[in-house]
Write a structure and sequence with these properties.
- This protein is an alpha/beta fold.
- A five-stranded parallel β-sheet has the order 2-1-3-4-5, sandwiched between helices.
- The protein is globular, with a radius of gyration of 13 Å.
- The protein has a single domain, classed as Rossmann fold (3-Layer(aba) Sandwich).
- Helices cover 39% and strands 19% of the residues.
- Helix 2 runs parallel beside helix 3.
Amino acid sequence: MAKSLMIVDDSATMRKIIMRTVRMSGLEFDRTEEAGNGKEALEKLQASPVDIVLCDINMPEMSGTEMVKEARKIDCCQATKIIMVSTESAEELINSVMADGANGYITKPFTPEKFQEKLAPFMN
């Protein structure tokens, strides 16, 4: 089954690092998209939904936490798996974003093995 991925981070460098690390994990995606903030991500998701979103939390215009809340209100995003990727490791924040609709959480720094562990369950 074809899978698609969107990486949402305000740093173009970090988006490249995440993509390279995902590729190193052995996971393959037929289509990848990028967005620089939550607002841009929502616009792209509405135009062309993806299967999995890897999303930073701290971004300008619309944070990752706001993006998760808004995405869960949109019909085309109901099945999208949203995995947060952040330096923030406070348990309270992680629990909050998971309650808002995120499907997983990866803390930076990350490894290919961590992406494999968190994304593989959503690849079927």
